[in-house]
Design brief:
Layout lengths: L7 E8 L6 E5 L10 E2 L2 E3 L6 H13 L8 E8 L9 E8 L13 E5 L1 H6 L4 H15 L1
Parallel strand pairs: 1-6
Antiparallel strand pairs: 1-4, 2-3, 2-7, 5-6
Length: about 140
């Protein structure tokens, strides 16, 4: 049986303001997918579980504090496997409560958007899938 490299696990947060808007982060231009909008988050470190990783990433990127009990698993998206490379799998969590004001601490910008506006933003392919799954779940 052929062996494939392990997946690269990534976590992302779908923060909602309770008024039907969702926070999106625009990636800094010098990074991969620079200038595109995404759900904020990052890579899961080898020593972390996804929820701990997301709390850490959102604190570093947005300057907010999140209680683990406020993470609601939502959906995931994954790249098609490419021979010889790690497949990216993104786990998306809905977040309705946090402490602090979300701001782009690592460059780029943040904004609050309705689902229709999020759909119109230019996003990386996996964030397109995540947005579609998220909005189907919360509207259904």
């Amino acid at each position: 049986m052929e062996k494939f490299p392990t997946a690269l696990w990534v976590v992302a947060g779908a923060l909602t303001d309770g008024q039907g808007r969702w926070l999106m982060h625009r990636r800094p231009l010098h990074k991969q997918h620079g200038g595109l909008w995404e759900f904020p988050g990052g890579k899961v470190e080898d020593t972390e579980i996804p929820s701990v990783s997301l709390i850490r990433e959102l604190h570093e990127e947005l300057g907010i504090q999140i209680d683990p009990a406020d993470l609601e698993p939502c959906c995931f998206a994954q790249e098609a496997p490419i021979h010889g490379s790690r497949q990216i799998v993104i786990l998306l969590y809905i977040i309705r409560n946090w402490q602090g004001v979300a701001q782009a601490l690592e460059g780029g910008e943040v904004g609050w958007f309705t689902p229709e506006e999020v759909s119109g933003l230019t996003k990386p392919p996996l964030d397109i899938e995540l947005a579609k799954s998220l909005f189907e779940k919360v509207s259904g």
